[in-house]
Write a structure and sequence with these properties.
Shape: rod-shaped
Number of strands: 0
Structural class: mainly alpha
Amino acid sequence: MTEEVMTKETVTTPELSDTLTSEEKSKALQLAQTLDVATSDSVLTYGADAQKNLSAFSQGVLDKVQNQDVGPIGDSLTELMNTLNQASPDDLRPEKQGFFARIFNRVQKSVYEMTAKYQQIGAQVDNVAARLDRHKDSLLADNKMLDGLFQENLDFFNQLNVYIGGAEMKLRDVRQRELPAAQEKARQTNNQLDVQKVQDLVQFEQRLEKRTNDLKLTRQIALQQAPQIRLIQSTNQVLAEKIQASVSTA
C-alpha cells in the first residue's frame, strides 16, 4: 500500500530536478548547497539575478513588439499598387484608325506622350521598389536579431530550470533528512535549542517552497516569450516575401 501511494505521488507531482541532464544536475546540486538555514538571506537571494536579468530581457522584447511599425511598409506597397494602376493596358493597343490618320498623328495619344508617361511611371516604380527593398532588408536583419533573442530566452529558461532543480533538491533533503532528524533529536533531548532548530527548519522549508514557486512563475514568462518572438519573426518573413513578390511583379 505504501509503495502504491509513493508511486502515485511520484506520478502526480514530478520534480523538475529529475528531468535535468547530468551536467545540469551537477550545477543544481552546487546551487542547492548555497541554501543554508543558518544564512538568513540565502533563500531571498536564490535565483534573484536570473529573475532580474530575465525581467530586463522581457522588457526589451516588449519594447521590440511595441515599436514594430509596419505602417510605412503598407504605405509603400499601396503606393506601388497605385502607381502601377496608372498604367493602362489599353494605351498599348493599336487603335482602329485608317492608315492616313496614323501617318498624320491624328491618334488620341502620340507615341511621345505615351513614352513620357511610362517613363514617369517607371521612375516612380523604381523609387518605391528601392524603398521597399530597404524595408525588406531591415525585416530580415530584425529576424536575425530575433534569432539571437530566441536563443537568449532559451538560455534563461534553462538557467531557471537549474535553479528550480537545485531548490527542489534542497527541499527534498530538508523534508526527508534534516527536518526528521532535527525533530527526533528535539524529542529525545527536549532541549529548547533543539526545538528552535526544528522551527527554523520548518520556516526555512516554507520560505524555500515559496521561492521555488516564484522561480517557476518566472520560468513561465520565458516559456511564453518563445512563441511571441517566433510570431514577430513570422510576421516579418511574410512581409518580406510580400515585398519581394510585389517588386518582382512590378
